[in-house]
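For consistency, the fold was encoded as tokens, as this record shows:
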Amino acid sequence: MAVDLGVNYLAVVVAAVAAVVIGILYYGLAGLGDRLARLVGSTPVGRPGPAQLAIGIVVALVNAWVLAVLSLNLGASSLTDGVMLGVLVWLGFMATLSGAQVAFQGRPWNAWLITNAHDVVVQVVMGAIVTLWR
């Protein structure tokens, strides 16, 4: 199987920045980070430190790059294709794996809901960006 890795790296960077901004708005400004921390029994941390921010950026870049590779190799080209890609990646990987973790770790399902509402939005936005901007 040949995989084309010739993605638009500027689109990958823009998609990653979008993911970080969404995270700041969702977990920070909307206060859902503190709520999530309380749900899982930890202390809210407030603003992320430099190490957390760096990890968030690297993770977003890898995530956006993988979405771009999938989009390119699946032949996605429209907004609908990008949105569908984001939803399928979220459903097939993020929602299912985090659901199993919640079940086996005994975490509250509200924590799953908070995390996955963020995750599906991020995947859809990044999928749309890397699909439309090839």
Residues 41 and 70 are 37 Å apart (CA to CA). Residues 79-105 form the longest helix (27 residues). Residues 9-132 form one domain. The mean pLDDT is 95.
